[in-house]
Design a protein that fits this description.
27% helix, Aminopeptidase, globular, 147 residues, alpha+beta, single chain, 38% strand
Length: 147
């Protein structure tokens, strides 16, 4: 399979990020608008992957460093449009973001993975912990990775 060139950058284009998230989480997975648009986007850093056809993947990161604890980033809302799935783009996006976070002094990344994709995150060095829980009607598992 020939990969199309993709650029991955931090973005202030929340409209593009929200459009991808709406297509994946609301339209495909049936998550409610209220669950998806939680009011936390202004507190987050957003990344956007774009190919020749336009925006194709996104995620956001929130600083959740505990008081006097290790600098911790929470990765959320990882979404890849169907046309780019299976190309390795999701892993490339995650690796780029993890590198950026480490360069900024974060020592830990955490996330709540949909249970069906924990293997994807394990391949990126995340380890599952704690019980499975429901988030927006979808089973999730907390995961952590040291940076």
């Amino acid at each position: 399979m020939t990969r199309r060139p993709v650029t991955i950058n931090r973005t202030d284009d929340l409209g593009a990020a929200l459009a991808i998230r709406a297509a994946v989480f609301i339209d495909e997975q049936g998550v409610s608008l209220a669950d998806e648009v939680d009011g936390l986007d202004p507190e987050c850093i957003h990344w956007l992957a774009t190919d020749a056809e336009g925006p194709v993947a996104t995620l956001r990161v929130m600083d959740v460093t505990p008081e006097e604890g290790p600098r911790t980033a929470k990765i959320q809302r990882v979404a890849v449009l169907p046309r780019a799935r299976g190309t390795g783009l999701g892993a490339i996006l995650m690796r780029d973001v993890l590198e950026d976070l480490q360069a900024e002094g974060y020592v830990r990344a955490i996330l709540g993975a949909q249970s069906q994709v924990t293997g994807f995150y394990e391949a990126l060095g995340f380890a599952a912990h704690g019980p499975t829980y429901d988030d927006a009607g979808i089973p999730h598992q907390d995961m952590t990775r040291e940076l």
